[in-house]
Amino acid sequence: xxxxxxxxxxxxxxxxxxEILEYEGHKVAEAxxxxxxxxxxxxxxxxxxxxxxxxxxxxxxxxxxMLAKKQVASPVxxxxxxxxxxxxxxxxxxxxxxFIQKPLDLNRVLVTLRNVLEREVLxxxxxxxxxxxxxxxxxxxxxxxxxxxxxxxMVDTVAPTDARVLITGANGSGKELVARQVHNHSQRxxxxxxxxxxxxxxxELIESELFGHEKGAFTSAVSQRKGxxxxxxGGTLFLDEVGDMSASAQAKVLxxxxxxxxSRVGSDKDIxxxxxxxxxxxxxxxxxxxxxxxxxxxxxxxxxxxIHVPSLAERASDIPLLVTHFLDVLCAQSGRPVPEVTxxxxxxxxxxxxxxxxxxxxxxxERLLIFCPAGKSVDEALVQKFGHLG
Length: 390
Description:
alpha/beta, Rossmann fold, Helicase, Ruva Protein, domain 3, 3 domains, five-stranded parallel sheet, 16 helices, elongated
């Protein structure tokens, strides 16, 4: 059963449409004017809204505009006895799901409503699946060392705010994991988490990647494209390796942070954005500022709350917990039993110089699991042979 809203100034039309929809088992609310419909839609979440185009005081296209401004997500089906192609196109451009002409055809109404409801189910299913994937990629930070406890405290404190966070640490130390934890524990957790690896994008393309571009802005711009700032609307934008960003991109990011606006490459139109920025780097940004390679004003915009992630060498006491955690995760993925790790093997792993930090340790555990015979333990001999220690 769906909860529907009918907005039409003609009571007989509302009555006949209501009769059809209630016969199909749906719950129906009515509004005789556009303003009454807007008030109802902002107070109650409807699965779909039927809205007449021609109404006194406020017509259906104005209703569409107001619903969009008030961020009402309910799909709107426009109905009209005076419909033209131009009116239908205008309605669809303003966000209407469909346009149905009067006199209303019963089958057309029901088919359109069924399509709307099926689309909403697919959207919700996609959101749930995306959240599951996101959660599976965002394991809790593992460790009991003082450094990890301090990070967890910082995350718990800063995440509920909208403060920008700058995460520093060596490659493979887990900076992205900290960024995801900040997002997951924030009020934006249901929004997107969009990652940009600034070091992996050529300097001539970074602005297009971050801010988008208009068709024809440059040779390969064959269509309009939204940038990462727009894609992260309502969520978190993670600027990984921000220290590798070009000077021109730094200037534009600074403006975006100051004004909450971006403009696509090839356009002079400003686009309002509501994005929380979390940045990370393995570089010493203060040294980069002194060398003229990074803007000091951008640094202070990004580093409202700095969080440093210690290297694995600084938290060696967490290695046994990490090994156990990685074995549990990898075995669950492969459907095989978790092998025992002998004390000698664990000591060898704990004493190894993991220059690649947590990422290197995880790769080593996965390698050991591959070469560990079924039913056998991970022993010191296996670690020495396949652990690639140091």
